[in-house]
Design brief:
Length: 258
């Protein structure tokens, strides 16, 4: 396997005006396709390499390279990236993102043109995968829910957070602006849907009398990481004095013998 000798200066990568990289920055969303272009002007360069530099790890990771017209992608990047081009005759190569699906795709990408002993880098392309904030909705309890396994009258509120990216979320509940953990339960992880966005569900079980008090306010809060920090997205509903009786559903309770 070909190994290039990349030179680093105290100020960063060894760059030259003989290597040009476009675009310099790009904003895209999940599912989008992206193509980066690298070209050089030196006829002695027959290889163009592509590197990724993530925010979490500033070390350069080799994605793949084009040697003359022969493309190679490193095993750890196969399926996420493709490379193509003619590094020698046309002096140009491309890095393809067939589909942006991972938060790790947000990074800086460098190309480098090389001959036998050293590589000269382009200016880099900063790719940002756009975040999508969740839509949060609290669903009222079902009128069919009468008692729990301990024969206590309970009602279950359901919070559904949908269409968000990435999946860095925490869900918690409040009743009348006070955090409530008793009776709360959230999915172990967010689900990846067909639109390449995430969804998650949480539930809160409360005594039926609490739900039937219209003065009570039940709030689901989704703490979401938007790339810069955490924000809270919330939805609140009030208790139902009728206890969902308007749905014409009758609860039948078994009488226990003592």
């Amino acid at each position: 396997m070909y190994i290039s000798y990349c030179l680093f200066l105290s100020t960063g990568l060894l760059q030259t005006n003989k290597v040009y990289q476009t675009p310099t920055a790009i904003l895209k969303g999940p599912e989008d396709k992206v193509q980066l272009t690298c070209r050089h002007t030196d006829s002695s360069y027959y290889m163009i390499l592509w590197y990724q530099q993530s925010a979490q790890n500033t070390a350069l990771k080799l994605i793949g390279y084009v040697s003359n017209t022969s493309p190679t992608v490193e095993d750890s990047f196969k399926g996420r990236f493709n490379v193509s081009g003619d590094a020698a005759a046309n002096k140009m190569a491309y890095l393809h993102f067939p589909k942006l699906t991972e938060a790790e795709d947000s990074a800086v990408y460098f190309c480098a043109a090389s001959e036998a002993h050293q590589a000269y880098f382009g200016g880099g392309t900063r790719l940002t995968v756009l975040v999508t904030e969740p839509t949060v909705k609290v669903l009222a309890p079902s009128a069919k829910e009468c008692k729990d396994r301990n024969n206590k009258k309970k009602k279950t509120l359901v919070c559904v957070a949908t269409r968000f990216y990435p999946d860095h979320v925490t869900v918690f509940w409040q009743v009348n602006n006070v955090n409530r953990t008793e009776g709360a339960g959230t999915d172990n992880k967010a689900l990846w849907d067909k639109d390449s966005l995430y969804s998650i569900t949480s539930r809160l079980r409360v005594p039926a009398k609490d739900w039937q008090n219209p003065d009570n306010r039940f709030t689901c809060i989704v703490s979401f990481y938007n790339g810069n920090g955490y924000i809270n997205v919330k939805h609140t509903i009030s208790g139902d004095l009728q206890g969902n009786k308007t749905m014409n559903t009758v609860c039948v309770y078994e009488k226990k013998e003592i």
